[in-house]
């Protein structure tokens, strides 16, 4: 197994050579916590063989497994090579070797944090504190809080009265939830990243409302001495025709200067079969929509999550990413607007899922 072992210097070189590379931290989620090398995708040993094809869809891709220094990565490499993974390696010494000599682990779990912080600073995204929000409510101001996390996260705890709207759904659901341009809009999440991107998405799309993000989200709310609410107390429904038209217009405004690339289904299928490049077909609609109709080879990857934690799905650096959406494409446009700015190679595939559902009925 010596020839499959690499040292820290080699891994650092590989990270900067521009070629496709997957780095997987195979420690348990509890041990990873909020620190993982190089923003590696966490795929614990016990799930590795069952789920690796989802995270690394091309078996010839260059891949490095990182463990806690206990030898589990070396053993996993042996098994996976026998299973057909041809370019897989392990980091000698694991995490202890990585941190030795000053290579510290990040102190946060979301690699998009530096990017989002830069967005906030460059765009001067408006912010409101928990105390200021409560004052507006006490004064009877027309204000709505949109929580951009997943609905599962929203149900666990959210700012009282907030409406659950995962980030990529913001434009599609906006007009039905916020019919008046006079309503003040506050975007929230658990901390900062998804709230900032959600608020800036609405601003970049040119909505007429005053938009801000809630400083430090639900954490900021409780730190200010306020209590959170649980359960799915309010979320979006099926979009009206007016909401769809609004999303179409604002989506065009959002992506006017993005230079988006659109492909057809045949191109996506050809890319997916390409043995020399990794391609992710990520369906950014809701999980419920995906369950009703989807394209073969695609993965349900809720758009709002991609905005904040893309690395949890896109494990291969340098891969092609195809965002799959319905014909309106508002969710794909939001995700592309931000992921392209983070260096991902993004294309969009729009498909008439409604026609498929009608045909199947």
Automatic annotation (TrEMBL):
From which domain of life does this come? Answer: Bacteria
Which keywords does this chain's UniProt record carry? Plasmid, Repeat, Transferase
Domain (Rhodanese) spans 5-107, 139-230, 275-358
Enumerate the GO terms in the molecular function aspect. Answer: transferase activity
Record's keyword annotation contains Transferase: yes
Q: Pfam families of this UniProt entry?
A: Rhodanese
Q: Does the keyword Cytoplasm apply?
A: no
Give the protein's recorded name: Thiosulfate sulfurtransferase
């Amino acid at each position: 197994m010596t020839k499959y072992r690499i040292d820290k210097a080699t891994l650092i070189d590989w990270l900067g050579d521009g070629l496709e590379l997957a780095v997987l931290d195979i420690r348990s989620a509890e041990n990873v916590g909020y620190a993982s090398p190089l923003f590696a995708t966490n795929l614990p040993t016990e799930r590795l063989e069952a789920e690796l094809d989802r995270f690394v869809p091309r078996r010839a891709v260059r891949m490095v497994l990182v463990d806690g220094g206990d030898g589990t990565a070396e053993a996993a490499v042996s098994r996976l090579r026998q299973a057909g993974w041809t370019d897989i390696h392990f980091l000698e010494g694991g995490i202890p070797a990585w941190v030795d000599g000053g290579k510290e682990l990040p102190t946060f779990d979301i690699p998009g944090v530096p990017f989002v912080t830069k967005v906030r600073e460059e765009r001067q995204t408006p912010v409101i504190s928990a105390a200021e929000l409560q004052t507006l409510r006490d004064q009877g101001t027309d204000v709505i809080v949109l929580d951009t996390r997943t609905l599962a996260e929203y149900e666990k705890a959210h700012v009282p009265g907030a409406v659950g709207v995962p980030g990529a759904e913001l434009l599609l659901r906006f007009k039905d939830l916020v019919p008046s341009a006079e309503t003040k809009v506050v975007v929230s999440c658990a901390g900062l990243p998804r709230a900032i991107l959600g608020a800036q998405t609405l601003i970049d799309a040119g909505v007429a409302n005053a938009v801000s993000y809630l400083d430090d989200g639900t954490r900021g709310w409780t730190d200010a001495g306020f209590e959170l609410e649980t359960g799915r107390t309010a979320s979006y429904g099926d979009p009206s025709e007016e909401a769809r038209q609004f999303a179409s217009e604002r989506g065009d405004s959002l992506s006017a200067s993005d230079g988006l690339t659109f492909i057809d289904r045949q191109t996506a299928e050809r890319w997916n079969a390409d043995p020399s490049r990794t391609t992710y077909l990520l369906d950014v609609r809701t999980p419920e929509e995906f369950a009703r109709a989807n394209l073969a080879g695609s993965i349900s990857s809720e758009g709002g999550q991609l905005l904040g934690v893309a690395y949890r799905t896109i494990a291969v650096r340098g891969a092609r990413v195809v965002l799959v959406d319905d014909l309106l494409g508002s969710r794909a446009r939001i995700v592309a607007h931000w992921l392209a700015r983070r260096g991902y190679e993004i294309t969009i595939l729009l498909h008439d899922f409604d026609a498929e559902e009608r045909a199947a009925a």
